[in-house]
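_Backbone structure tokens_
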Amino acid sequence: MAKQKQIIALDAGSQNIHAIWMQMRANKPFVSRVESFSLPLDAENPNDLIRQWVSKHHLSKTFCNVSLDGNQTVFQGGRIDHTDPRTAQQVAAMDIAQFNEMAGDEMVFDVADFEYEQEPGMRRYIMSMARPAAIEKALHKTEQMHLRPAELISSPVALFNALESFTDDHKSPWCYINIGNSQTDVAIGTKEGLLFARTINVGGKIFTDAVSAETGLPKAQAEVRKQSDCGLHETDACFESLRAATDRWISQFNACLGVFRSQFPEKKLQIDKIVISGGGARLRGFKAYLSTKLTTEIMAAEELPNIPSSYKKYIGQSDIAYGLALCSFKFAITKLSLLPEDLKDEVVFRAKKPWWIAAAIFIFIAMGIYSATGMYLFKRDGQILSAEKARLRTREQIDKRIAQLKIMESQTLTNSVPLARLLMNGPVSRELLSLVCSSVDPDDWITLFCDEKVYNAEEQAEPDTLAPIAKSARNPFSLFRTMRPAAARKAAAPKKDETQAKKDMVDSLDQVFIVEGYTPNPSLKSVRELIERLKTSPAIARVDLRSDDQVLAPTGIPEMELAQIPDFRRFVIEIEVYRP
């Protein structure tokens, strides 16, 4: 359980109820308040009296550390070698599985381990377990008292934590005894931790019964008489009956010590001192009589050296409640809590509730600020994004327009190539065409006169380097075919100076022309004569017959057959001219 400013611990026995208010001062436990309540022996409805007492001290619905009856708890101890990789929880889980099989129920348990100085290389552990029914009964009893459990600790464990915190360092184990009304809690251990714990089903009631049997008084009056003049001294009243009852108690206690010695037979683990407390230990002469019966030194809880000043006047009466309160602080030597996990979570929630509320408020405010800031930033970023989108759309339109202009420019440049060639070749072409026309035979026909680059469409098959003009096609209404590569490549190429551009233009002028026509002369005599006449021109470098084909008269068409069209030969002449 988390540390709190104040812890309330309540030990509800069968006859007496003790409550302690404890807090930390100067890093030490300080008892600020102690309240006790004794139930009447003849009370018909003790729960109503307890609820009234709880309400009187403003404990209703308050979280308190409460005790579990030691008779409902089973303790199991053992050792773990340092070479054993298992934790105490894992070892206890294996032990509890065996108890579950024997008990036929899922036991609730907790385990604590510690390094024991007397056994180097070993770890001691002790496990506290109880049936779920016993836990439910204890929680129901707490609910009937209008209390809320913060810790559920077995009474022997609380007794050990309380009295061991008052002792000096000691190597051998000490035995702590709290004699209640109907039972006696026994706890044995050292400063390192608890070794052994048991609850004996015999307590101070055995002394009250002895007085009642000898005097014939009712139990309520016998209890008062026991505290007034009865005792174990020979001068005390009822000493013989009380000695007999004490012997029966001692026999039960010796049986308990016999179990301890069987589990811890080593000499170094033998009990060095016995410390007694509780209402039963206040019987007159009890400590002296017990010393004569036992070989171990007996000490009253009031004789322990380190009792806090705030608790000295309560020592021996509410020791279990004191030990319960220590379990919420770091001063508890051995803490074995049997409180169910869901109730532990509730305690943690209640302890940290103010901090969680403050954290929730802070988170709510932070989320509000974060949301408002986020909305503002979202709106601002949205406006920025809209402006960027508008600019992007404008740039896209500009890019599209630029691409269209580039396509138009490329097409214009490409289509201007034949025209530029024609214009620059115009004088030469006119002279050559005039020469051909004056030299051709009157019976021959000239059907085509062009330069070689137009006649040969090889460049139309060249790969295109500009995607926008890759789909240019022949324009059926133009005298020139749409040219793809030359102008487009020149438009994409780096710019040259004016002199180099003119030189490239001159180099690109045509020097070879093609003349295509038909002759009725099958021997091509007139064509050869044409070639010879052209060769005599000083402007012509070379004239060759490039090809000739036989053109037959059409058949199957009556009109054409009646016209009796003669056979023609198609000829192609290649003429190369000189360039100045």
